[in-house]
Design brief:
about 110 residues, three-stranded antiparallel β-sheet, 3 helices, 3 strands
Length: about 110
């Protein structure tokens, strides 16, 4: 598992990047054509990743999510073709999506 995770992380910059100005315009055009939303280059959503075990930290209760026993919360931004363009992960499961989004580089 560690080798797979490391291999994915090594390829991250090759496949996970924010679009340049030209690509932003193209994505925004496609999104506006299909949904009517102008100047939109990404769709953002939060998700929870369940943990197999209780975290061994003092703040373990903070990792209790509303859907699973213990979770890690994340924010993922995709373009109109479902390509992940940005993500942040590792927040405790009880953290609200808005708080996570406000603390990203993207914000």
């Amino acid at each position: 598992m560690r080798r797979v995770v490391q291999a994915i992380r090594n390829k991250r910059d090759e496949f996970l990047f924010w679009p340049d100005e030209e690509e932003k315009k193209e994505i925004a055009r496609r999104i506006e054509d299909t949904s009517g939303l102008p100047n939109c280059v990404g769709i953002i959503d939060g998700t929870l990743f369940p943990l197999a075990f209780r975290p061994q930290t003092e703040d373990a209760p903070d990792y209790k999510g509303r859907k699973f026993l213990y979770t890690i919360s994340s924010i993922i931004v995709c373009d109109d073709q479902r390509m992940i363009r940005y993500y942040v992960a590792g927040w405790p499961g009880s953290t609200h999506d808005n708080r996570i989004a406000r603390n990203t580089k993207m914000w």
